[in-house]
Specification:
Elements: H1 11-23, H2 27-33, E1 37-41, H3 46-51, E2 62-65, E3 84-88, H4 89-95, H5 99-117
Parallel strand pairs: 1-3
Antiparallel strand pairs: 2-3
Helix pairs in contact: 1-5
């Protein structure tokens, strides 16, 4: 049995909720978000779940990919992919019941992933 709000939100409506959540970020996070590409994907890839040793796609709402700012250097080799945050639509919609919950979860996920962008580990996150 599918739970949450997933059957009631089109991909386009979810993208709009992502944009609203990004516009509502506090200034210091909004500035960081300008440096990172935020993309929506339907589900986390199986290989990502395996790499992170997660049992269920519902255990991962977003993922930061890139070199954290704390590790960037003038001497880094070129050709690196720009930093990006993937927001996983399916797990978020299965978790949430309303548009406001979806926006809040997206916001919280983006802030968490931006923490990784500045070099924080999961146990160092502000919440």
């Amino acid at each position: 049995m599918e739970t949450g709000w997933s059957g009631r939100v089109s991909p386009e409506a979810f993208d709009r909720l992502v944009q609203e959540a990004l516009r509502g970020l506090p200034a210091r996070y909004a500035k960081l978000a300008e440096e990172v590409s935020v993309v929506v994907e339907e589900e986390p890839p199986a290989e990502v779940l395996a790499d992170l040793d997660l049992d269920s796609e519902d255990d991962l709402l977003g993922l930061y990919q890139g070199l954290p700012l704390s590790e960037e250097s003038f001497f880094q080799p070129g050709g690196q992919q720009p930093p990006r945050i993937a927001i996983y639509r399916g797990p978020i919609l299965r978790l949430c019941r309303t548009a406001e919950e979806v926006k809040q979860e997206i916001r919280d996920t983006v802030v968490h992933e931006l923490g990784h962008h500045v070099g924080l580990d999961d146990d160092e996150m502000p919440y």
